[in-house]
């Protein structure tokens, strides 16, 4: 298994996994016509744009094996003045879920945050109805602190929970505590 920084030529594989994940886990959250007709093209455009000329505070990591892309994480350092660095996206291939790959990607991403944004808090936003993600973040010992509404790409307003940690070390500790001995 290999973890590396994403490059421009990875955008199609990332977009495909992102769209597949949304189609799998966002049923009854995002509009079905968007998932059926638009999500693939939308994610292609997003990832091509993000990887064409990435901003200095963007960091995208991939986890791969000989079979291909297993997952990815995208962060934006010091994204919010009060909350800090956002874990904007984390997706694992459905066939490889519950194997610790999400935790592994977060741990590796936290090394980048610690290097470039050490005084930054960490946060992420999770759709309230995205139960598998809520369960994952609850499992690593965090709880939601703020609520917000997100205008999704399909035009619907979705209620989200915001999870926060005071520092990269606080999240790293939470991950270590949640791992079996």
Automatic annotation (TrEMBL):
Residues 1-181 form the N-acetyltransferase domain. Keywords: Transferase. GO terms for molecular function: acyltransferase activity, transferring groups other than amino-acyl groups. InterPro entries: Acyl_CoA_acyltransferase (IPR016181), GNAT_dom (IPR000182). It holds the Pfam family Acetyltransf_1. The keyword Transferase applies. It comes from Vibrio palustris. Gene3D superfamilies: 3.40.630.30. It comes from the Bacteria. This is Putative acetyltransferase. The keyword Membrane does not apply.
